[in-house]
Every structure is written in C-alpha cells, then in structure tokens.
Amino acid sequence: MTLHVISMSDYETDDQFSEIYPYIDSGELTGNARRDKPILIMADRYVIDHDGLLYRIDTPRDKKLAKLKAIVRRLCVPRRFRHEIVKYTHEHNVHYAA
C-alpha cells in the first residue's frame, strides 16, 4: 500500500481547509471566508511550507511548557486521506495511537 501525496488542490477541495488554504497562500478570502472572521483570527496559527503542505502551529499556553517545547508543527491532512493514513499506520505499526 502506498500513500498518496497531498497537493494544493487537495486542500482547496477539502471542506475543512478550502477557505483557510487560499488565505494563507495568497491572502485571498474566498466563499464563506469573506464573512467568517474566525478565518482571520486563526490565520496566524497556520503556515504553508515550500512543498505546499499546510501545517498548524501550536504553542503551549503554559509559559513553563513553552520554554521546553516552544512550537509544534502539525500536518493538516485533508479529510479524504485520513482513513488511508490511519489504516496504513495500523498495518505497519500495530495499534499506534491516533
């Protein structure tokens, strides 16, 4: 089993990322994002790397934890790939935690 490569078009067609991705990429508000202020508030929590992959940036709220583990980048996976990734991980790592 091989995993598919996530592309920009996968983010643009995903119901969860279709509005935030273009805004992070080009600053363009599309569709419901024009009326949706949370997109603007959440924009500083996302970054697109040089391969076009979208990551959510998490920083600990606790100042002590922030010194130990300041930034965590989490890959944003379009909904259509999630089952495939969980299945692949399960088959190769046996009951790996989600």
In short:
The protein is of the alpha+beta class and 98 residues long.
Overall SS class: alpha+beta
**Overall number of strands:** 3
Write the element-wise H/E pattern from the N-terminal end onward. HHHEEHEH
**Mean pLDDT across residues:** 80
Q: What is the approximate shape?
A: flat
Order of neighbouring strands in the sheet with most strands: 1-2-3
Alpha plus pi helix count: 5
Query: What can be said about the biggest beta sheet?
Result: 3 strands, antiparallel
Write down the domain tally.
Answer: 1
Q: What Rg is obtained from the alpha carbons, in whole angstroms?
A: 16 Å
| C-alpha end-to-end distance | 19 Å
- Low-confidence spans: pLDDT under 50, at least 5 residues? none
Note the beta-strand portion.
Answer: 5-15%
Helix content: 40-55%
